[in-house]
Amino acid sequence: MTRDPLKPGSVIGILGGGQLGRMVALAAARLGFRCHVYCPDPASPAFEVAAVHTIAPYEDADALAVFAREVDVITYEFENVPAETARILSAAKPLYPDARALAITQDRVAEKRFFAGAGIAVAPFAPVDAEADLEAAVAVTGLPAILKTTRFGYDGKGQAKVATLEEARAALARLAAPCILEGLVPFALEVSAIVVRGRSGDTAVYEIGENRHENHILATTTVPAAVSADTLTAARDLGCRIAEALDYVGVLGVEMFVVRDGAGERLLVNELAPRVHNSGHWTEDGAVTSQFENHVRAIAGWPLGSVDRLGDVEMRNLIGAEADDWFAIVSDPAARLHLYGKAESRPGRKMGHVNRVVRRG
Ligand code: AMP
Asked: What is the topology classification, in CATH, of domain 11-95?
């Protein structure tokens, strides 16, 4: 469907009021758009920077209908948007990324099958719908393996590493089916591709970043990743292929493992995030156009902005009390501080991030 580019002054509807929605809304405001954020949580960080907000459950069909009437295009900042919510909204207004991208990326089995169908290398996997499936699943993946819930997992939640069939049984009892069992990948490092694809199919991929986790939460993204030039190119190509296969519109995060063996480096795709991604936060200060602005441009039907990198970058997440060091951070003139305006700092909570860019030339 061809649609005219959205004019400045139009209203962008954002489902979800966390920091990702907040940063999308800030980028949208810079381009002259107004944002309407829809989130059940009255303390949503995105509300503070949006023109309008709605506090209502995602299942509230009446509130969704009013929201859809008041906006020109709809996007979201989290992948667990209920299918019925996506159906109601996309019947009323354009929803980007679309309901198919949501359906595939919110279910780990559907996602892995999509990769397999597109000829994209992933760890061996098998769906586990009941305990009786475990033995056959282990035969596919080998041990050790990782058992993950098919839905709603994040930051290491909803998954368990298992070394024996007994451990897999115990983990399944704890996590509850439906699950997926994946072979444990002996990766050297983790990287991600932040891809943006516009409504007319134009696609761009940011420089590949290397991600380091602490306590299952992203700690730093370093750009460029310390991998071979061939691997950087292969990772970008994979990102493009995936976005095209999904006929995707918006920013897409593609998380990958780099495996090193005698044959060199190879990539296995781990998972997709159908939204702006934490590992793309470096683009706010380290690229010509941030992932947030490019997401807005894509869903608005605007041309994409340059994804060129301005220098070597490190993005560090500020988790829990780390954000209390804000004064020391801003005392370093090279540090670019981003705080999410969350009132309460809890252990493990993402409170902000800091970018450091070493400019080239
Ligand atoms: P996920 O929720 O799938 O992103 O997994 C969270 C983290 O667990 C990843 O970033 C990896 O560090 C680790 N992980 C997930 N799946 C695997 C796997 N199949 N093999 C090795 N490590 C994994």
From this structure: Rossmann fold (3.40.50)
Class of domain 124-183: alpha beta
What's the whole-number mean pLDDT along residues 289-310? 98
H/E element, 222: strand 217-223
CA distance 162 to 153: 17
Distance between first and last Cα of the chain: 44
The residue-averaged pLDDT of 68-91 equals 97
Distance between CA 291 and CA 304 in Å, rounded?
Answer: 10
Substitution site in 146, 180, 256 for ligand 1 pocket (most atoms within 8 Å of beta carbon): 146
Q: What residue spans define the domains of the chain?
A: 11-95, 124-183, 189-359
The whole-model pTM stands at 0.97
Nearest residue to 325 via CA among 345, 297, 300, 303: 345
Work out the average pLDDT over 85-104.
97
For the chain, give the mean pLDDT: 96
CA–CA gap between residue 353 and residue 277 (Å, rounded):
13
Report CA(270)–ligand 1 centroid distance (Å). 7
Dig out the tokens for 247 from the structure. 């006929």
Q: Which of 210, 176, 180 is nearest to 192 (CA)?
A: 210
User: What pLDDT sits at residue 52?
Assistant: 98
User: In a 3-state reduction of DSSP, which class is residue 136?
Assistant: helix
Are the beta carbons of 319 and 354 closer than 8 angstroms? Answer: no
| Closest residue by CA, ligand 1 atom 18 | 184
The CATH H-level (homologous superfamily) assignment of domain 189-359 is ATP-grasp fold, B domain (3.30.470.20)
